[in-house]
Amino acid sequence: MQPPLVSDLVIRAAKTIRGRDRPPAIMVHGIMPRSGTVYLGQLLRLHPEIHAYPHQLWELPALMQSPRVMGLAKGFLLEYKPNLGRMAEGDFLPLFGASLLAYLYEDSPPSSRLLVKSPSVQYITHFYSMFPHEYLVLLVRDGRDVVHSTLRTWPKLTFLQACLRWRRSADAVLSAKDAFQGSREDQYFFARFEEAISDPSKFVRALCRHSGLDADRFPFDQIDSIKVIGSSKLTIPGETVEWRWLPKPKGFQPTGHWQKWPSTRKLMFKAVAGRQLMDLGYGDNLDW
Question: If we measure between CA atoms, which residue out of 179, 222, 186, 178 comes closest to residue 204?
């Protein structure tokens, strides 16, 4: 999906609306629910420069509104037909995004970096049309673990449905990487949940270096104190997901549970989403 056309004039106006002196917000988009956005948010918000989830907006599904915002623009222009052609098709997107950010920034310290998240990559190629001045963290996770966790969280879904959801989301991520190639590489960070879990200190240093956060100010000694919520690994009787904040158990390992799948499930995942799994860097072949 190609990004909508946005005029340079509106991009400049959007910077004024959001605040010209405000540093780029850090906006995390996970490949789909169960991809680790909550954990990553808890990790990043330890940084003293971060102002996380202003006004208690724990998720910010702004990009999902792209078609509605563009529909509003079309209706606006059609109300007085001589206005047609005076604005680009996507010009309402950065105006909407900048206004939303101005609201989020209202009660935050002037030098802070906003942190918001969404477990969705729907319309992710529209990100810089809506948020041309912000910083994107594009979070992916092994599709096999996402499917496994999805089924434990929402058992009414079928295995095929979960696989198809991850495949569609993976295709969106791959399209975004192609769209941002060369032009936005300093404005986004491609993050893997597995790296944030296995070596969070190394992960944080890399993200800080790329996003402009001061790594020397990060409290690395507090990483182990991060609590867990909504993990499909931590359940209460009846195998339902526990949605209370819990201390992270010793040896907590939220990856690799798909390895216990029967061969039929492995074969189905390979058939449905094996190519996308490899394209996102999770192995060079399907010999697993």
Answer: 222
In 3D, which of 21, 20, 25 has the Cα closest to residue 52?
25
Give the 3-state secondary structure of residue 93.
Answer: helix
pLDDT tens digits along 241-256: 555 656 666 666 789 9
Neighbours of 8 (CB within 10 A): 9
Q: What is the DSSP letter of 45?
A: T
Residue 111 near residue 48, CB atoms below 8 Å: no
User: Cα(269)–Cα(163) distance, rounded to whole angstroms?
Assistant: 6
Prediction pTM value: 0.91
Long-range contacts, 225-231 (Cβ 8 Å, 24+): 226/39, 226/42, 226/43, 226/46, 227/42, 228/39, 228/252, 229/38, 230/38, 230/153
List of domains in the chain = 8-279 (3.40.50.300)
- Return the H-helix or E-strand segment holding 105: helix 92-105
Residues of the chain with pLDDT under 50: 234, 236-239
Task: Look at residues 40, 269, 283 and name the one whose alpha carbon lies nearest to residue 139.
Answer: 40
- What is residue 218's DSSP assignment? S
Whole-number Å distance between alpha carbons of 29 and 141: 12
